[in-house]
TrEMBL record, chain B:
Entry keywords, A to Z: Cell inner membrane, Cell membrane, Membrane, Sugar transport, Transmembrane, Transmembrane helix, Transport
Membrane-related topology note: Multi-pass membrane protein
Any Pfam family: BPD_transp_2
Presence of keyword Transport: yes
PANTHER family linked to this entry: ABC TRANSPORTER PERMEASE PROTEIN YPHD-RELATED-RELATED, XYLOSE TRANSPORT SYSTEM PERMEASE PROTEIN XYLH
Source organism, top-level taxon: Bacteria
Identification of the protein by name: Xylose transport system permease protein XylH
Keyword Translocase assigned: no
Reported function: Part of the binding-protein-dependent transport system for D-xylose. Probably responsible for the translocation of the substrate across the membrane.
Length: 260, 401
């Protein structure tokens, strides 16, 4: 039940299954995310949210099922493959280097360089990195301290912002965020939620994992509920109440609406 | 200029607080200040106690004394930046010196012998780096085992006599000769011109790209301070016999490695791996490659230090590579302010740390202080340095969250 049937989803996962030893972590996960849409992936601990994200990020590979990205079935054998397609993940623990400054973190692993001795010596071009970062930050309405500020001295919300900005800077088509507002203050939470909305408004597909039902209802267009490794329900935000979602998460609900 | 996301009210967040002097000290802007101040203090104390401390002749001596563990300390700094440790650098340096001496003794061209000596460190470093990175054995153990095994190897290389004298003039000149005065001034002038050129060019480029300018005051302070230190040191050293070649070797490698750390992608990746290895891996950095490369570099630096040491001694000896050299080198890196926990520090700090250690040893020797006092003072300073590191680390954590 996609919001706009006319577009093909950016991401579609079908019947993902994954077993870790004796544990069936995923047992049939299916959903899709369209461009400009925010989909929330919710579920209790151990429902398979993180495992699902890891498969889409290329960190883990599914045993069964398929991942379709922009209409093509893809095999995401490594994070690099996923990134190359335009899948960016903002992890819960942020994956920033505290000891480096903002601009170094934005370009971590993809530093822009210029030749000093052509063909032999290349140095990092910090000025060019800053120049390229600024329009992206502006586009998303991100305001940060000067870009040479060390990340260690940023607040939690600012760090989250740096992590999101990095995903955007790298030409992502799909951004996945794992608990983006956990451990943030109220004001910072709001700022990050607004940032996520701007991310979707800029035409990217956004997949958010969250425990926070009020966050989910603030930003998500659709809500996908996982329980015990399977998709048990997919809701349009306007047509559902938080109670119904919670019921689906805990398994108290009878009105399961399984979609593909 | 600091604007937080969200409300203006938010300016009470850590980012705003971080402008206090202490936080700027640990934030990296004045990283070198604490050890620089301690060095000045140490010099004043020794000069008061014995007025031959701050003479050209003694400072020239100090440079020669510290060159070896300065070079080792620089390599150790890179390792510490990763959050690892290398206990084998003294043994590797002894191997470097021994290979140099043995080859030179057999009539090999001195330059070939020097390169072979240095490369021996490269090989040993690479070997240990492989062991730490690929086989995932803790670096503490790998390099401890390495230091023992390499000392064994040293005895094999040097043989029964216990020393191999170095008769070659070229090699002995490293720690025995001085630059002519004019040449040292030419080098200082070139270095200063390069620094000014780089600063001016950077400002122009930032203006052209429409980026906020860097603080002019901080840029010029840095330039003026560097100029003062370089000119002062050159005047002092030229008043005796000139800049020792060993000192030049040390400076060249410090500048080279500091530049690598600061300006190349590989250098930034060392910091990234030391700061958050998982983040580095997820960002696509070849973490294993960086680790192996750093161990290789540290081994090379150790062997180069060993070459300078052997030149100073005029021989390679089975007594080289002892625990004093190891401790002095690690202390130089740590006192300089490089964190044992990885990610924070710089090669320049190792130079300052080596100066601190060298000054204490030299000053104590001038005072005819007993070895006991020397060790006690060195121990106390090392403990203070690490305590400072621990505190700043905790403070950084508080700031961050």
């Amino acid at each position: 039940m996609a919001t706009e049937v006319k577009t093909q989803p950016v991401l579609e996962v079908r019947h993902l299954r994954k077993r870790f030893g004796a544990v069936q972590a995923l047992d049939g996960v299916s959903f899709s995310v369209h461009a400009g849409e925010i989909v929330a992936l919710v579920g209790d601990n151990g429902a398979g949210k993180s495992t699902t994200i890891k498969m889409i990020a290329g960190v883990e590979q599914p045993d069964e099922g398929e991942i379709v990205f922009e209409g093509q079935a893809v095999r995401l054998t490594s994070p690099a493959v996923a990134e190359k397609l335009g899948i960016q993940t903002v992890y819960q623990d942020l994956a920033l280097c505290d000891n480096l400054d903002i601009v170094s973190n934005l370009f971590l692993g993809r530093e822009l360089r210029r030749s000093v001795i052509p063909g032999l010596v290349r140095v990092i071009d910090r000025n060019e990195m800053e120049r390229r970062a600024i329009p992206v930050l502006n586009e998303l309405g991100i305001r940060l301290p000067p870009l040479h500020t060390q990340v260690a001295s940023l607040s939690g919300g600012q760090r989250q912002t740096v992590a999101v900005a990095r995903s955007v800077l790298w030409g992502s088509k799909l951004v996945m965020l794992d608990e983006p507002t956990a451990a943030l203050g109220v004001v910072q939470q709001r700022a990050v939620l607004e940032l996520i909305q701007r991310l979707a408004a800029s035409g990217r597909a956004v997949l958010v994992i969250s425990h926070n039902m009020s966050d989910v209802f603030k930003i998500a267009n659709r809500i996908v509920v996982l329980r015990l490794g399977r998709t048990v329900a997919t809701f349009e935000r306007e047509q559902v109440t938080p109670e119904q979602v919670v019921a689906a998460i805990t398994g108290a609900s009878a009105q399961e609406e399984v979609t593909s | 200029m600091t604007v937080n996301i969200g409300q203006a009210k938010q300016t009470q967040t850590p980012a705003a607080r971080s402008t206090s002097v202490f936080d700027r000290l640990i934030g990296g802007e004045f990283q070198q200040l604490p050890v620089f101040l301690s060095l000045v203090l140490i010099w004043i104390v020794f000069e008061i106690l014995n007025n031959s401390f701050l003479t050209s002749r003694n400072l020239s001596n100090l440079v020669l004394q510290m060159a070896e563990y300065g070079l080792l300390g620089v390599g150790e700094t890179l390792i510490l930046l990763l959050g690892e440790i290398d206990l084998s650098i003294a043994a590797v340096s002894a191997i470097g010196g021994a290979i140099l001496a043995v080859l030179a003794g057999n009539g090999v061209n001195p330059y070939v012998a020097i390169i072979a000596g240095a490369l021996s460190g490269t090989v040993l470093g690479l070997f240990q780096g492989f062991w730490v990175t690929v086989l995932r054995v803790p670096s503490f153990i790998v390099t401890l085992a390495g230091s023992l095994a390499f000392l064994g190897l040293l005895f094999v290389l040097i043989g029964q006599e216990g020393t191999v004298p170095i008769m070659n003039n070229t090699i002995n000149a490293i720690a025995g000769n001085y630059l002519p005065d004019w040449l040292s001034w030419v080098l200082v002038a070139v270095a200063l011109l390069l620094m000014v050129w780089a600063a001016v060019r950077d400002r122009a480029k930032r203006q052209k790209l429409g980026l906020p300018p860097k603080s002019a005051a901080s840029t010029w302070t840095k330039l003026i301070l560097s100029a003062a230190v370089m000119i002062g040191a050159t005047v002092l050293l030229n008043a005796y016999q000139g800049v020792p070649i060993a000192g030049l070797v040390l400076i060249v490698f410090v500048v080279l490695l500091a530049w690598i750390c600061q300006s190349t992608a590989f250098g930034r990746h060392i910091y990234a791996v030391g700061g958050n290895a998982e983040a580095a891996r997820r960002a696509g950095i070849n973490v294993k490659g960086v680790r192996i490369m750093v161990f290789t570099l540290a081994g090379t630096m150790a062997a180069i230090g060993g070459i300078v040491g052997a030149s100073r001694l005029g021989a390679a000896s089975t007594a080289s590579g002892g625990s004093d050299l190891l401790m002095d080198s690690i202390a130089a890196a740590v006192i300089g302010g490089t964190s044992l926990f990885g990610g924070y520090g710089s090669v320049w700090n190792a130079l300052l740390g080596a100066l601190v250690i060298g000054s204490i040893e030299n000053g104590m020797a001038l005072l005819n202080a007993p070895t006991s006092t020397k060790y006690l003072v060195e121990g106390a300073i090392l403990l203070l340095a690490v305590t400072f590191d621990t505190f700043t680390r905790m403070r950084r954590k508080q700031l961050g969250r």
